[in-house]
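Collaborator request log, item 7. Partner lab (contact: R.S.) asked for a structural prediction of DNA-binding transcriptional LysR family regulator to inform their binding assays.
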Amino acid sequence: MRYVLAVAETGNFTRAAAQCFVVQSALSHQVKSLERELGLTLFARTSRRVELTSAGEAFLPAARACLEAAERAVVEAAAAAGQVRGRLSIGVIPTVTALDVPDALRRFRDAHPQVPVGLRVGSSRDFLREIREGVLDIALLGLPVTEPPRGVAHRELRRSRHLAVVPSGHRLGRRRRLRLADLAEEVFADFPAESPGRAQSDLAFTAAGLQRQVAFEMTAVDHILDLVDAGLAVALLPPGTVPDRPGLRTVPVVDGPERIEHLAWSDFNPSPASSAFLRVLGFD
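Returned to partner:
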């Protein structure tokens, strides 16, 4: 069944064999043996093309569920024996500052070297959905103070207020502190609309009764800072995300956006690996 899933995911027997770390002939033989046992053809294949048949499409969800159940059984049996097995999947926002992620992973690896870790950068809202769906184990989130994590267990790590980031020669770069009203006429670079990273600044301007122009939308902090450095825009970013660069100045904003960084995990059925990670962090 694992080989069938690999062929379905890659659409190719050669790539599936490489993914499963077996030779192609062995993988093909096992798939044909399963088809004979079932009395069904799971794949329509030629020398150039592989596609799931209707029987294969129907077989796939249950096969995936069987494999997941088998893996879960091994993990839970190991946990009952005091061992940690399985895989740990972690989602991290690009602007995380409240946790030293490499250090946390090093400590977890030292304690549980047999557990592989998958680390992915993405959006807080996507991570919350994936934790609720059981796809993701742990996530580091950054959310507006008005948007607490829902449907998951979570721990608050840090609250912070954004800094204004302006080009080094900007008229506001010499100020000791600013208000949002001082920035309202500036051109901004920010995260994409509707993202949690953007929402923090949008909410702050709305609460202050101000409007602003966001001319550039970027998903990466480095790209936002490059635009500021080039004199094309200003930005609002959390402390700790702006490196010491000659072309940039940071200024506190007394009524600037606030955000909370959270550590989140499943409140329904956390995996043994995620529970072990929480223990390493001292959050058990």
